[in-house]
């Protein structure tokens, strides 16, 4: 990937550059799925965390779970989740806005004092479009988009996933995997707002 391509993945719609990675082990919990799908989601998390060279944990000392993934049929269901309004400020207005936009997914990030990701909440309204996506593909796509703070316009024209031509298996695009690994290199910052960061990522991708 060229530095310009990398820069575009972290340049937001308002033109600002903003990058962040997780600053603590990821402690996931998944709501609203059966055991089989739960194993698929956790397998996707383990795979992406392994690519990043990051860590997972059973619990987060501050939050208990710091990556919460919700599967549901109607946005109003979120209003019935105990204490979710304490974790997501203005949950009611957010639900109203997502319903009005007919959205089927939404991600919320929380950051520590250093700007690194300390928590993420993934909301998936299983409409007919998401329901038609194989569980493995849906899970891997969501985890990839949660392991880093990508731009709000990233992956609009190109998926981070690819299909193996010989088996139809869905995999992480190799260049995206190398970018994630470079982003989690210990010499790289946990948060960056300067576009020169994209040049550093490009250089680390060549090393890795």
Task: Give a quick precis of the structure.
This protein is α/β, with parallel strands linked by helices.
Report how far the terminal alpha carbons are from each other. 13 Å
CATH topology (fold) name of the largest domain: Chitobiase, domain 2
Structural class label: alpha/beta
**Biggest beta-sheet profile:** 4 strands, mixed
Describe this structure in words.
It is a single chain. The protein has 208 residues and is of the alpha/beta class. The chain has two domains: 1-20 and 157-208, no CATH class; 22-147, Chitobiase, domain 2, CATH 3.30.379. The protein has eight helices and eight strands, in the order αββαβααββααββαβα. The protein has helices at residues 3-9, 35-52, 84-87, 91-100, 128-131, 135-147, 174-183, 196-207, and strands spanning 19-20, 28-31, 67-72, 105-111, 117-125, 161-163, 170-172, 191-192. The strands form three sheets. Strands 2-3-5-4 form a four-stranded mixed sheet, covered by helices on one side. A two-stranded antiparallel ribbon has the order 1-8. It is globular, with a radius of gyration of 17 Å. The two termini are 13 Å apart. The model has no long low-confidence stretch (mean pLDDT 94).
Question: Any descriptors?
Answer:
four-stranded mixed β-sheet; 208 residues; globular; two-stranded antiparallel ribbon; alpha/beta; Chitobiase, domain 2; 38% helix; 8 strands
Produce the secondary structure layout.
Elements: H1 3-9, E1 19-20, E2 28-31, H2 35-52, E3 67-72, H3 84-87, H4 91-100, E4 105-111, E5 117-125, H5 128-131, H6 135-147, E6 161-163, E7 170-172, H7 174-183, E8 191-192, H8 196-207
Parallel strand pairs: 2-3, 3-5
Antiparallel strand pairs: 1-8, 4-5, 6-7
């Amino acid at each position: 990937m060229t530095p310009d391509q990398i820069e575009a993945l972290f340049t937001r719609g308002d033109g600002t550059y903003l990058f962040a990675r997780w600053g603590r082990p990821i402690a996931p919990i998944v709501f609203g799925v059966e055991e089989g799908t739960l194993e698929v989601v956790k397998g996707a998390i383990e795979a992406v965390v392994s690519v990043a060279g990051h860590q997972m944990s059973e619990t987060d000392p501050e939050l208990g779970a710091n990556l919460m993934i919700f599967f549901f049929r109607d946005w109003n269901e979120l209003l019935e989740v105990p204490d979710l309004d304490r974790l997501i400020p203005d949950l009611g207005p957010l639900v109203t806005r997502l319903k009005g936009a007919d959205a089927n997914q939404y991600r919320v990030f929380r950051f520590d004092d250093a700007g690194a990701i300390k928590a993420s909440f993934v909301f998936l309204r299983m409409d007919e479009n998401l329901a038609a996506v194989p569980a493995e593909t849906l899970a891997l796509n969501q985890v990839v988009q949660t392991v880093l703070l990508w731009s709000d316009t990233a992956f609009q024209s190109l998926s981070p996933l690819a299909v193996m031509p010989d088996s139809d298996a869905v995999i992480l695009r190799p260049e995206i995997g190398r970018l994630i690994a470079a982003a989690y290199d210990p010499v790289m910052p946990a948060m960056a707002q300067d576009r020169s960061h994209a040049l550093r990522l490009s250089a680390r991708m060549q090393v890795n």
